[in-house]
Amino acid sequence: MLKILLRSRVSAAPLFRSFRNLHYIQGQSPEPNIREYFYYIDHQGQLFLHDARIKNFTSCFKEKRFIEFFFKRLRLNKTQRYPDFPYISLCGRERNFISCDDKPIVYLELVKDSATTDYLYYGGYKADLKVPFEPSKLCMLPSNGRVYYPTKDLYGGIGLIKSKIAIELSQYFVFENGELEPPTHIDWNNQRHELSNKLLPLLVAKD
């Protein structure tokens, strides 16, 4: 793990933390040669220590190498430890438990990288993690107005579109069933795409 980030985490480590009956110590060692840390991802995709008192852009992690390393190893937490942290990033001898405001994968930018392909970028500040953008896979949940997009099953299968991008995309949505129902199409790059809404049953089940 990068030394600069270790120093920033160790500063919080001596304090015992309890959140809604969650008990842990940052950097605790439940067994030899294992360290455990606890993180939080907000709806803007920013990564924080879970026990950070103030969570904003100045206090989130920004080191590109660490963020890419962290998110590439993110997956569902199947360790049976800390079920209130449904995700984990295993980094060598470190277990990094993760909770989030909505989804751990938040798509932060929509960029046209070539003449034919658009990409969604995720993974925090300046991370170079991306997936091809297929507009038909977008899904808006009417109950909260948020827009979602598929991600790897390792991450739970559903990613969140950052609100700024979602607002920009929403002007292209077509609501053939009325605005109280999910959009049915999106007009993108001079073409009307029918939305599959395959994510909708999964989102409704968890809503």
TrEMBL record:
Pfam families: DUF4505 (PF14956). It comes from the Eukaryota. InterPro entries: DUF4505 (IPR028108). Belongs to the UPF0598 family. This is Uncharacterized protein.
